[in-house]
Amino acid sequence: MKDLFGKALLDYHTNNYTEDIVTSTNISGEDDLPLPYLFRSFNEMPELEQHALKLAKGRVLDVGCGSGSHSLWLQENGFEVKAIDVSKGAVEVAKQRGVHHAEVNNLLNETDTFDTILILMNGTGIFQELSQVSNYLTHLKSLLNPNGQILIDSSDIAYMYEDEDGGIWIDTNANYYGELDYFLSYKGENEVPMKWLYLDFDTLSKACKTVGLTCEMILEGEHYDYLARLT
Q: How many Å apart are CA 218 and CA 99, to the nearest integer?
């Protein structure tokens, strides 16, 4: 990875903001990801994220912390937070913004235990493919203290396969419809393409059962998105 995401965050944080990140997938065209949005305050966050943060308890792991916006709010409200991200640039920015404990780490390499694990901004994306979900959930379960919780969000993107008559056309012989190839570019450079998973709630719930986790719908958003609590 070239860490273009981290480069963009560092540019914004050091007042070198001239353009936004551009994203696309194998089923959707180019879309701007505004850098200011990645530095949002609590009041600027979507309701799902605000709700998740208010449900946090005990020691918190912020997975895919980005610029540290979630961690900062939690710290300000008295929580002990560990923030991790695979992006070196993102972790650098999170530290510079005041996150006390931020480190470059892949979730599957994490070994500490927590009372709350936060995986937000389409948290199921880090699972990458449907075949990896059980592996990730099993590992997440091992990181939970007794009575701990995982707060994760995602979206059911079946609507993206709708035809003009409102019918859903999904190739049942293809991979799960929420498995996407995700492309990111910044300032004319292309990042190495990656896999990204949007998981509908029923599929997440069934996967949780197979590894001994309970999956509860906490909140449904306005656009096929939802927040779930795994215990």
A: 27
